[in-house]
Amino acid sequence: MFKKILIANRGEIACRVAATASRLGIQTVAVYSEADANAQHVKACDEAVLIGGPAPRDSYLQWERILAAAKATGAEAVHPGYGFLSENEAFAQACADAGVVFIGPPPAAIQAMGLKAESKRLMEAAKVPLVPGYHGADQDPALLKREAGRIGYPVLIKASAGGGGKGMRAVYSDDEFDAALASCKREAINSFGDDAVLIERYVQRPRHIEIQVFGDSQGDCVYLFERDCSVQRRHQKVLEEAPAPGMTPERRAQMGEAAVAAAKAVGYVGAGTVEFIAEQDGRFYFMEMNTRLQVEHPVTEAITGQDLVEWQLRVASGEPLPLKQHELRMHGHAIEARICAENPDGGFLPATGTLDVARWPAHVAFQRGTTRIDAGVREGDAISPFYDSMIAKLIVWGEDRAQALARLDAALRDTHIVGLHTNVAFLRRCAATASFSGADLDTGLIEREKAQLFDQPGLPLRVSAAAVVAHTLAVESATQGSDPWSARDGFRLFGAASRRFDLEAGGTHHEVRLSHHHRGGMTLTVEGESIDFAVQSADAETHELFIGAERIGVKTYAQGERVAVFAPTGSAVLTEVDLIAHAGDGPAEGGRLTAPMPGKLIAFLAQAGDSVTKGQPLAVMEAMKMEHTISSPRDGKVAELLFAIGDQVTDGAELLKLET
Length: 660
Known about the structure:
Elements (H helix, E strand, L loop, with lengths): L3 E4 L3 H13 L3 E7 L6 H5 L2 E6 L10 H11 L3 E3 L9 H9 L3 E2 L4 H8 L1 H10 L7 E2 L6 H11 L3 E5 L8 E4 L2 H19 L4 E5 L5 E9 L5 E13 L2 E7 L6 H17 L4 E9 L5 E7 L6 H8 L3 H9 L16 E8 L1 E2 L5 E2 L2 E2 L2 E3 L11 E5 L6 E2 L6 E9 L2 H13 L2 E3 L5 H9 L1 H4 L7 H4 L1 H4 L7 H19 L17 E9 L2 E9 L5 E5 L2 E9 L4 E6 L2 E10 L2 E6 L2 E7 L16 E2 L4 E6 L6 E2 L4 E7 L2 E6 L4 E6 L6 E2 L4 E6 L1
Helix pairs in contact: 4-5, 7-8, 12-13
Cofactor: biotin
Protein name: Biotin carboxylase N-terminal domain-containing protein
Organism: Pelomonas candidula
């Protein structure tokens, strides 16, 4: 076994690898960018080496610097995690040439499976089922368009060297093809340095089922069962679970054996995942192989009882697989939810900012348990535009799927993040849909259930307003001291006392009144309705509200005037407005085309002098490794472009000037 390894990654996966290494008594070396100097993964390792600037191309993709760090620190092996260099055969080969073990498959296996077109040809020879498509080397756009017509719309254009939903577009008609191909190629060259694509038939109502495989250097290979990753948006996974609902033992064996055949066809060693598209009737087709550990590997660990990172380390050090196929067993059901910094109601645009509050349910970290949180950030850390938007992974396990679903809902309910947009509430709604809870799964689930998933009303105002009032009263009670004259408890010798709270929620102003009665008791008046009100506060954050006949436990977190409220049925953010302090504020300027997040300007789709209409695409930005199209907020005429292509722009920056 190794004595010291270098982890060529950051964030959650670097912390994950470090946890297993520490348990096994292996020393770890972190590498970090200037943006990550105080990151959690740096503190999780025994040593750390600075390798460059914030952008991945200046740091985490600089494999020469990473190898130099391994040599300088005496690391015997490099664990690439996932993303960055994990599927880069040149890096794997450079490690071998430098006498450093690459904790992953041989370079030839990465190359064979990394190019989707080549992998399809290998799978066809290995008799692994394939989706009808074009995987040729000729990339002439006219030929690609003809092939799409031959295959039959809808088709998927996919970057041959891609993954993670990048460089992938669904095309439903001949008229859409040219623009989709150009966008796909542009994103592919930016993400992978290769704009070659393949085209496949877009299977209707497909399920995404993947098989975890493991090979050793002795030639043995096993499968550790399947994961269902059908719940996706923009081809990126949202919820993953194991085992796949409705999977029969016979079908599981067929898919597992096909996955092992795929791995053996390229002499695979280490952890890998063979991904299949599955029809609703159970037919399945090879899609691609990810030659690395997957983000969703914890659900496999949960049902098998195995530590897959430990398996990686043992196999890479030359040991045989810890278990044979007949020794592997499944128990229970596990579900993973990816918690990301993004705004689901805003088209899933990535969000940046500081984790002012990051509170989790009772859990274990980086090990098996009924509730597990794998995170590479802490409260107070910043989510920057340079890296992936994932904040953490929440994994739950139950004796059966029903218990796992119940635990998932409870864990998401108790996950409180403040400071930036997240998808936590969206994940909770998604897990509660009839489709997901009833295991009616396919990759179109989010679109099919959009009425339940998007633009849902938050907490009723009476609850969120009552929570803000409770928070204010608790803070005042804790700070007023023993001076009776400064107390704000509503005491009067005669008559009732009334107090006004000015709150803003969703851009709307609300006047809320709290009345203290002469004979005791309080009334809260919200939107013209007066309700009996009482509160028991354990501290400034934890409150038990009594609103009429309702009893509701809530949490409140304040940053300045803004108060985030979390209740069992949802959350809300309100602003407690000081009218005197804001007396001079004027209305904000509207109708501007602004950047919805920090990122790089990729393209303008209109020029100065062009007339445009509301909703017309005007600019394309790249942020967190994805492209985002920005549309005109109103009708008008482009007066001036304010940035050049390739410029980095800040959140809220005006991109171009529109005239009426």
